[in-house]
Task: inverse folding
């Protein structure tokens, strides 16, 4: 059985404060109720301020997301799967269990999924969730991935995959990676 909740504000577009309407890649309308998609946002915190800015954000239908994942090298996929499984095993099975009677999305999304480090103690973080129409699917819990984990994950990715991700970022998300790194700091990865 699937469990759905309304899309939280933090998963909506920062541009207009509304749910994402279209797939970044194919342009498919996402809010029809039958379309599954992923929303990913990368955020940057500023030392001494209770403020964060969005580095990038997008929504992508699951078909396009699957195609993007196919562009990853087999080595990168295997490394990422092993890493994820190890981290989940370290945390224990309870981390994936949600009690729907007491589930609080704001509390769940207030810290790194893996390290439990609070958002305000991270320089950068990424958030990812799976959606159907105008609802968030919580069967596959959304998560915050903190800067320490991003750094570890980026070391697991092959040069071929890095090139593919940089091409995707340049095509769909803005300035070339070299300029992004100058503006925002180190490179981020896609989840």
Result:
């Amino acid at each position: 059985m699937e469990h759905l909740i309304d899309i939280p504000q933090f998963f909506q577009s920062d541009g207009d404060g509304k749910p994402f309407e279209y797939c970044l890649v194919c342009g498919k309308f996402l809010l029809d109720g039958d379309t599954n998609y992923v929303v990913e946002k990368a955020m940057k915190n500023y030392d001494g301020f209770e403020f964060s800015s969005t580095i990038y954000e997008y929504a992508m239908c699951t078909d396009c997301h699957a195609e993007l994942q196919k562009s990853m090298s087999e080595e990168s996929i295997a490394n990422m799967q092993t890493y994820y499984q190890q981290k989940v095993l370290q945390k224990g099975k309870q981390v994936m269990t949600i009690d729907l009677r007491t589930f609080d999305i704001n509390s769940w999304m207030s810290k790194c999924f893996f390290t439990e480090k609070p958002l305000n103690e991270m320089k950068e973080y990424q958030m990812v969730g799976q959606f159907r129409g105008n609802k968030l699917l919580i069967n596959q819990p959304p998560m915050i991935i903190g800067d320490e984990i991003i750094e570890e994950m980026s070391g697991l990715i092959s040069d071929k995959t890095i090139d593919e991700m940089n091409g995707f970022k340049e095509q769909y998300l803005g300035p070339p990676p070299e300029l992004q790194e100058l503006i925002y700091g180190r490179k981020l990865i896609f989840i």
Remarks:
- Helices lie at 62-70, 74-91, 105-108, 147-154, 159-172, 177-184.
